[in-house]
From TrEMBL:
<dbReference type="GO" id="GO:0006047">
    <property type="term" value="P:UDP-N-acetylglucosamine metabolic process"/>
</dbReference>
<feature type="domain" description="SIS">
    <location>
        <begin position="46"/>
        <end position="185"/>
    </location>
</feature>
<keyword id="KW-0315">Glutamine amidotransferase</keyword>
<dbReference type="GO" id="GO:0005975">
    <property type="term" value="P:carbohydrate metabolic process"/>
</dbReference>
<comment type="function">
    <text>Catalyzes the first step in hexosamine metabolism, converting fructose-6P into glucosamine-6P using glutamine as a nitrogen source.</text>
</comment>
<dbReference type="GO" id="GO:0006487">
    <property type="term" value="P:protein N-linked glycosylation"/>
</dbReference>
<dbReference type="GO" id="GO:0004360">
    <property type="term" value="F:glutamine-fructose-6-phosphate transaminase (isomerizing) activity"/>
</dbReference>
<keyword id="KW-0963">Cytoplasm</keyword>
<keyword id="KW-0677">Repeat</keyword>
<keyword id="KW-0808">Transferase</keyword>
<dbReference type="GO" id="GO:0006002">
    <property type="term" value="P:fructose 6-phosphate metabolic process"/>
</dbReference>
<keyword id="KW-0032">Aminotransferase</keyword>
<feature type="active site" description="For Fru-6P isomerization activity">
    <location>
        <position position="366"/>
    </location>
</feature>
<feature type="domain" description="SIS">
    <location>
        <begin position="219"/>
        <end position="361"/>
    </location>
</feature>
<comment type="subunit">
    <text>Homodimer.</text>
</comment>
<dbReference type="GO" id="GO:0097367">
    <property type="term" value="F:carbohydrate derivative binding"/>
</dbReference>
<protein>
    <recommendedName>
        <fullName>Glutamine--fructose-6-phosphate aminotransferase [isomerizing]</fullName>
        <ecNumber>2.6.1.16</ecNumber>
    </recommendedName>
</protein>
C-alpha cells in the first residue's frame, strides 16, 4: 500500500530517498571524529586481526560485489594490503590460495545468498578468518562468520538494491579506516579528515536528492526508448559505472553495460553510433583528462554523452549532451556515494517511463538462496 511506502510510488524510490538516514545508521556509534578513530564494538574485528592479515578477500554477488570493487580501491590506497574481489559463484569453484593469513569479507544484504554462503564456508575451511558485512540481523551468513559489521540500513524491499549498497560502502569505508589505523598507514589527522568528509555525505545527498530526481525525470522522457546504454568510469567510478548499468538493466530491461573507460577501445567502441547513450562519470580527479579523451572518442562517433561531473565544470558541460551535476568534495574518495544515487534515480525514472514493475522486476529475486 501507499502507507507502507510512506507516500512514495514504489519501495525503490522510498529506499533511494532513505539513503542519508541509512548511511547515518551505518556510521552511528562507530566514529569518534575528535579522536580520528573508528570503533567496532562487534566481536572479532580487532587490531591484532588486521595486523596479521596478508590478503583481504572480498566475496559477494550482484550489487554487493560492486561494493567490494569500490572497497578494493579504498583499502589498497589507505592500508597497503592487497585486496582481491571475487564473485562468490567463481570463488567457490576455483583452486584457491586462501590460508590463515587471509581475512575473508563476505558482503551480503540478505545474508542468505547461496553462492556467498558457500564461499564463506570454503574460506573458513582454508583457515581464513571471516568478518561479514550484512544488513539482516541473525541471517545465515552472520551466524557462520567470526564477526559481522551490520549495515543497519533497515529493511530493503525493492528487488534492486539501493540503500543497502550505499550502507555497505559506508561500512567498508569505516573498515578501511580502522585497518589503516591498525597498520599505521594513515596518521590520525588523515583519518580524522576522512571521517569528517564521510560525515558530510548524508547531508550532501539530502541537499541534492530533489535536483537529481528532477534531472532523472527530464532525462527519462528523452532516453527511455533507447535499446542500449553504455556506462563508463575510471578508478572508484568504474564500479559505480557497473552498478549504474546493473540498476538500469534490472528494472527497465534495457541492455546496459558498465565498462572501465580505458577498456572502451577494446570492444564497446565498436557499438557507438547516434543511437547509443553513454553515461560518463567524470569528476575532476587524477584521471579526469583521460575520461575527457574517452568522451571525445564517443562524440566523434556521434554517441550521446550524458555526463556526471562536478558543479561548475563548464568544459564537461560543453562536451556533453546532458550533464548531471554532483557536488565537489574536498576528498573524492567519498565520490562513490554521490555518483551512485543519480544513476539509481535515472534507472528508476526510465523504468517508470517504460511501465515496468520497478519493485519486482521479472525473473529476479530479492535474495537468491538456491544456486
Ligand atoms: C540478488 C538481488 C540483488 C543483490 C544480489 C546479492 O540478485 O536481486 O539486488 O545484489 O542478489 O544479494 P545479497 O543479499 O547477497 O547482497
Amino acid at each position: 500500500s501507499m502507507a507502507e511506502k510512506a507516500g512514495y510510488k514504489h519501495f525503490m524510490l522510498k529506499e533511494i530517498y532513505e539513503q542519508p538516514q541509512a548511511i547515518l545508521n551505518t556510521l552511528r556509534g562507530r566514529v569518534l571524529p575528535e579522536e580520528g578513530e573508528v570503533i567496532f564494538e562487534e566481536s572479532g574485528i580487532t587490531q591484532d586481526l588486521i595486523k596479521k592479515t596478508k590478503m583481504v578477500n572480498l566475496v559477494a554477488c550482484g550489487t554487493s560485489w560492486h561494493a567490494g570493487l569500490v572497497a578494493k580501491y579504498w583499502i589498497e590506497k589507505w592500508v597497503r594490503i592487497p585486496v582481491q574481489v571475487d564473485l562468490a559463484s567463481e570463488f567457490r569453484y576455483r583452486d584457491l590460495l586462501v590460508d590463515d593469513s587471509w581475512l575473508t569479507i563476505p558482503i551480503s544484504q540478505s545474508g542468505e545468498t547461496a553462492d556467498t554462503l558457500a564461499g564463506l564456508r570454503i574460506a573458513k575451511d582454508h583457515g581464513s578468518t571471516v568478518i561479514s558485512i550484512c544488513n539482516v540481523v541473525g541471517s545465515t551468513i552472520t551466524r557462520e562468520s567470526d564477526g559481522t559489521i551490520y549495515t543497519h540500513a533497515g529493511p530493503e524491499i525493492g528487488v534492486a538494491s539501493t540503500k543497502a549498497f550505499t550502507s555497505q560502502l559506508a561500512a567498508l569505508y569505516l573498515l578501511g579506516l580502522f585497518m589503516a589505523k591498525a597498520r599505521g598507514t594513515l596518521d590520525q589527522k588523515a583519518i580524522k579528515e576522512k571521517i569528517d568528509v564521510m560525515l558530510e555525505v548524508p547531508g550532501l545527498i539530502e541537499e541534492e536528492l530533489k535536483a537529481w530526481h528532477n534531472r532523472a525525470k527530464d532525462l527519462s522522457c528523452e532516453f527511455s526508448q533507447y535499446p542500449n546504454f553504455l556506462y563508463l568510469g575510471r578508478g572508484l567510478h568504474f564500479p559505480v559505472a557497473l552498478e549504474g548499468a546493473l540498476k538500469l538493466k534490472e528494472i527497465s530491461y534495457i541492455h546496459a553495460e558498465g565498462y572501465a573507460a580505458g577498456e572502451m577501445k577494446h570492444g564497446p567502441i565498436a557499438l557507438i553510433d547516434k543511437n547509443m547513450p553513454v553515461v560518463c562519470l567524470a569528476p575532476q580527479d587524477h584521471v579526469y583528462e583521460k575520461l575527457l579523451s574517452n568522451i571525445e572518442e564517443v562524440r566523434s562517433r556521434r554517441g550521446i554523452v550524458i555526463s556526471l561531473g562536478e558543479k561548475g565544470d563548464e568544459k564537461l558541460k560543453k562536451l556533453s549532451k546532458e550533464l548531471i551535476e554532483v557536488p565537489k568534495v574536498d576528498d573524492r574518495d567519498v565520490n562513490p556515494f554521490l555518483y551512485t544515487i543519480p544513476l539509481q534515480l535515472l534507472a528508476y525514472e526510465i523504468a517508470v517511463q517504460r511501465g515496468c514493475d520497478v519493485d519486482q522486476p521479472r525473473n529476479l529475486a530479492k535474495s537468491v538462496t538456491v544456486e
